[in-house]
Every structure is written in structure tokens, then in C-alpha cells.
Write a structure and sequence with these properties.
The structure is a single chain. The radius of gyration is 17 Å and the shape is globular. The chain has 9 helices and 8 strands. The chain has helices at about 20-25, 40-50, 70-80, 105-120, 135-140, 160-165, 185-190, 220-230, 235-250; strands spanning about 1-5, 30-35, 55-60, 85-95, 125-130, 150, 170-175, 195-200. The chain is an alpha/beta fold. The structure holds zinc ion (ZN). Zinc ion binds next to loops.
Length: about 260
Amino acid sequence: MYIDTHCHLDFKNYDEDREIVIQRAIKSDIQAIITIGTNIETSKMAIKLAENYASVFAAVGIHPTDCLQTTDEHLETIEELSKHEKVVAIGEVGLDYYHMKATKEKQQSIFRKQIDLAVRQNLPLIIHNRDSHDDIYDIITTSSSSKVGGVMHSFSGDMDFLEKILLTNLHVSFTGNITFKKSNNTPLVERSPIQQLLLETDSPFLTPTPLRGKRNEPAFLVHTAKKIAEIKNLDVNEVGYVTTENAKKLFRLNV
Ligand SMILES: [Zn+2]
């Protein structure tokens, strides 16, 4: 059993066959899927999908590349959406200095406000970080985010940054990119304790080897799990079991 803790099932990449993709995941030992909002519209779509499938859950939030026009009113809408019974996290939220769609100050302000929102609603955080390690770390450690915990999703950064994150109560997750030939994530996966790891596909992106070139989907998660098992010298079933328990506990999943 595996849990895909991060994918975007609402994306139009799945418009033709969304139902089949979800059924294929269920048949491929995926016990639960968390589909992630990136703005108000996609957060609403995530909830709709979660309402339709017992094993699909939703996260709601404003992504840092989507926060340019975000107002306090928008955040109130996110907070209202977060009260839905199938919403299990606030995300994805964070900082993205690679795409830089809004100023650093704006991104930081929206991130901090969504951390406060998560704490008020007692929901864990799904954090996006791209080229913003120092500021992410600063905000995590100077806010009350440790009260709710969460996950540093699609982990990127060097060993020093990983060491700092592992000392917080955040989980870390790696995507299909750890299966790529040129991946330099192997030492990071090796260093991350299995008790602090989650699995994710980040579908429709980052399709794992040997399926590269295809659209990614939750059913492909096993390839990433196998790679983690190989790196950590564990049985793939153990990787599945422990990361599933980690996800169930963090997101309080009823599956
Ligand atoms: Zn994502």
C-alpha cells in the first residue's frame, strides 16, 4: 500500500480520462491520494474530486506563483474551504524565487498568513520551496508552523539544508526525479529517516524512470518507492508501509 501525498488531479491533463486514472491508482495499491490546490479555483476543484472518491483527499491554498493578486478576502475564502471534512492540509504554500511571479515580500506575507490560517484550523502544511531555502527556513522557524507540522514537498536543496529541515518537525518527500540518471538526490534520500519520509508523484509532472516522457499519474508512485527502497536497502513493502503510516498520521486520513 502507498499514499500519493501530492498530485494535481484537477489539471486539464486528466480531462479525458480522470476517472480511469483514479481507478488505475486504486488498482495499483494506492490507498489514498491527496490532490492539491494552487489557487481558489483549483482548491475548489480538489474538494469536488475528494467528494466524489472515498480515497481522494484535498489540500487548499495559494501557491507562491499564484499569489500576486491575493488579498485577505481570498485568504478568507481559502479558510472557509479548509473547513470541509475532506480537506486534510493547507497547500501548496511557500516561496518560489525561481519563477518569481510576485515580489519576495508579497510571497512571504502570503506564506506567513497561510501558516497562521493552518494553525487556526489545525491543519498541516504542504510547503513548496524553489530557490528560497534561507527565507523558507527563516519563516518556518519564526512562525508557529511547528504547531501543525507538514511536509517539505518535492525536496530540493543541499545536505546542509536537509539537515536543518530534519531538525524541525517537518516531513520531507521526494518525487520521481530521484529515479533520473542524473539525480543528485541519492545522498539526501539516504540521509532522510524513513519515519520522516512521505511519498508523492507531483503528477502530472516529474514522471519516474522507466516511464519518462509520459504524463505522470498516482499509479506510477511505486517506481519512486522502489528507488527509495533501493537507496535505503529496504524492502519496497516496508517503504510503502512506513510512509503510509506517516501520511495517515500527519494528515489524519480516515482510510
Ligand atoms: Zn504541486
